[in-house]
Fold this sequence. Notes:
Blueprint: E1 6-8, H1 10-21, H2 25-30, E2 41-43, H3 84-87, E3 93-96, E4 101-104, E5 122-124, E6 128-134, H4 150-169, E7 178-184, H5 189-205, E8 226-230, H6 235-247, E9 252-254, E10 271-273, H7 278-291, E11 296-302, H8 305-320, E12 324-331, H9 340-351, E13 358-362, H10 365-377, E14 385-388, H11 396-399, H12 403-406, E15 410-414, H13 422-427, H14 440-448, H15 485-506, H16 522-530, E16 533-535, E17 541-543, E18 553-563, E19 566-576, E20 579-582, E21 610-613, E22 621-624, E23 630-632, E24 640-642, E25 647-649, E26 656-658, H17 669-694, H18 699-703, H19 706-727, H20 732-767, H21 779-803, E27 808-811, E28 819-822, H22 830-850, H23 860-884, H24 889-921, H25 946-960, H26 973-979
Helix pairs in contact: 4-15, 5-6, 7-8, 9-10, 15-16, 17-19, 17-24, 19-20, 19-21, 19-24, 20-21, 20-22, 21-22, 22-23, 23-24
Amino acid sequence: MKQLVLIINVDFILCLLSYVSHVDGRELLHHGFGRNRQRYHYYNLDDCGHEIKFVEKHGNKSSRHAQSYLCQNMFSLKHKRHGFQQLHRNRYFVRHNANSVVEERNNTKQPHVIHWPVKREAVVEGDLILGGLMMVHSREDSVTCGPIMPQGGIQALETMLYTLDKINMDNLIPNVTIGAHILDDCDKDTYGLEMAVDFIKGSISNIDEATDYNNCSSKGHKKKVISGVVGAASSVTSIQVANLLRLFKIPQVSYFSTSPELSNKQRFEYFSRTIPSDHYQVKAIVDIVRQLGWSYISIIYEESNYGIKAFEELDDLLSKHGICIAIKEKLVKDSGVAEKIAYDNIVIKLLTKPRAKGVIIFGSDQEVAEVMRAVRRQNVTGVFSWIGSDGWSARNLVSDGNEAEVEGTLSVQPQANSVIGFEEYFLNLTVDNNSRNPWFIEFWEDHFQCKYPNSPPTPYNKQYTKFCSATEKLTKHTLDFEDQLQFVSDAVMAFGYAFKNMHQELCGSKPGLCDEMNPTKGADLLKYLRKADFIGLSGDRFNFDINGDGPARYNIIHFKQYEPDKYKWIKVGEYYQGELRLNMEDIQFGIKNPNPPESVCSRPCERGQAKKYVEGEGCCWHCFNCSQYQIRNPADETHCINCPRGTIPDIYHENCQHIPEDYLKPESPYAIGAMSFSSLGIVMTLFVVGVFLKNNDTPIVRASGRELSYVLLSGILLCYGVTYALVFKPNDIVCGVQRFWSGFSFTVVYAALLTKTNRIARIFNASTKSAKRPSFISPHSQLVICGILISFQILINAVWMVVSPAHAMHHYPTREDNLLVCNSYTDASYMVAFFYPIFLIIVCTVYAVLTRKTPEAFNESKYIGFTMYTTCVIWLAFIPLYFGTGNNVQLRIASMSVTISLSATVTLVCLFSPKLYIILIRPERNIRQSMMPIRYSTINKTTGSAQSSVMAAVIVTAATCNENEKVIKNVSNENITGAY
Length: 980
């Protein structure tokens, strides 16, 4: 049959598809059928067996028109392109099957020109056909297809064929075999899309059997429908192909495409994959970075859907964990491998951030290999530590020749086991026994570095000077197997079990294909495919998740130098169900530097230090110390805050610690001393009270003003008791008792003393004016007067309690003090309690001065005067001591307690010791006559006068202090003398 060539662009394909599938070409374009108006492609369109006429018009770069009559002139195409003739002159077309290659050149003969690429296909006949899209050749910038890819290409292709053999051999579907139609996408999305068009030809030809297109073949040939497609490998290609296959409802299962975007089933309804999504790989990478303690890293990602989507998720997740990105650079992807200068610039850019030692590379093996070569060219080997994605981990294409640059890499690789029996199968393959793989000769030549006899020329075998002997043997020692071939096998097995379940349900027990499955309906097959659950050839159970993705299981692998100049990839951990398990002891970032490098912009500040960020940098800062009484703000690490009063920073300035409460504790030496003094005073006072009660009716007790003396002793007891109120831990009740008790006790003492001195003063003032006895000098009157004086203090305290209730509080005289005191302690409000007693003291002192010249028989006034003078001295000394000890609460309270007790002691000793002396030591003087002085016993011996008579009477009255005792107005000389 005559072979012709038609050079068309993607617009022609769109037009063709729109005719046979009744879908508008623009709509196809809208659904993602990629096109490039500046690229031209080769297609064999002679399936109908009719001549295709190609017409060119020459001249002044005008538009060229090509008109072809296809299938009895079904439609015409207009092809508009400039420079059409010269661009495609000397082209040829190659058509081949599984066993042979037939070439037909045009009229211009150029036998020495290598025509590349050559479109080939691997075909396995079967009742059901699976398409396969493999990256048999690597991507190259200068040509469409690069050199052969041994691991991810040939081995993946053979894994698909091996799995099909196992399925057919095990008769998984009764009397039904599964075949294959496998094409090469050269790891390019545009080229892969062109290849994928072959998969839809069968679907197109079987859409409407009534059209003339289906009957145009003279042989009555009818292309088989592709039930599903295994592939592609890269995410970029899979996205393009998935958009096309979705239009024709052809299920697709990829084995290496990991882009998170492909999990969107609204866009990629018919796409599934056996490998997990990069969404989980990104999480694993971030967890590795965190475990290494890195906070400042760089990211290199390829400019493709695979890299861009991963970077977006990395950027978001890293920021959540406070990890900053120093440099982010793209790797050119879609237009092939870039020039060396592009990779050199990336490395130079990394060097601008020398503190970012850790670098995440999310890309494919070819680009990463160029990065490693650029690292070597820039002489920075060992400067950076790499975290790799599955796109280049454990790939010889990256590590071979770049071992020193790749050393220390930690990489995330989807967890996969070896396909059982595949290694033995592959090692037994030869060119002679593997005719169904049209690329196997290229693999053989690349592996053994020789030219196979009669093999077609390629840009890569022309350099071989020796010929292959055809006796070479593949060995395990010279061959590196791809670690992720399980995903290829699982993809084929998933289709196999989907066909099996579909056959059981639609065809029942009937062997062979039934009408319901001839051809298979893509929508129905997709349902069975997603429900596939099986034990694969690797021994692992497989099933798709809700998004049609494989289970999220990853191995963490490490490129390690285990001996000088000997490297290997080893497993150092795994990531499973969101948990990272990493064996840090097995990780060695360099044989001379096994510890993980530091990848931080700024080291963490010391505890309690705050940060001042460098402008424009989120992880770079300067550290500064907080002041003495500040801590770093827990909510804002860039600021310091003052500790509240009553607290001070800990030694690290991280937390404010409470200062222990300071108050006069009963067990303190100050309290013990004050209570000892008060206790002694209480004992002395009780002793005096006991003596007075025992001698209650004796003249000395009666002459001292018995009732007021008891009041005075009660006040002294209260003064001593104030100490015990002061040493209790302050609370609202204790503070109220202290406030009332301290002033009240003094008021009782000095109210009684004032009443005494006032009585004496009034008696002697009255004696100078008349013989009439002064009023209100009786004991009952004296008690009433004393009670009135005391009531004023009670009233003052009551008003004070209402206006300013007593309560305990914390007082902070300095930043390091925390005094638990009563509120009156913090200011001069205690003077309210002592204001009235001080007033009484002053008045008593004045009366003591006024009565200092009274007769000796009334010498108690002298003792009162001495008591008041001493009391004034004590209080004058106490006031500066009280206000000078504001920061020492124990000393202050103790000094107040001692001052009050000392004042009571002075009163007790000065007023009652003379009386106790007479009662206990000189009882003979405890008689009535002894209460009068000797000089007054001879009053009547003088010339006598009325004044003298009155004075004698007053003396007796004053001495007896008993209103019930009769006053003798006329006292003879003898009687007075006898009384004395």
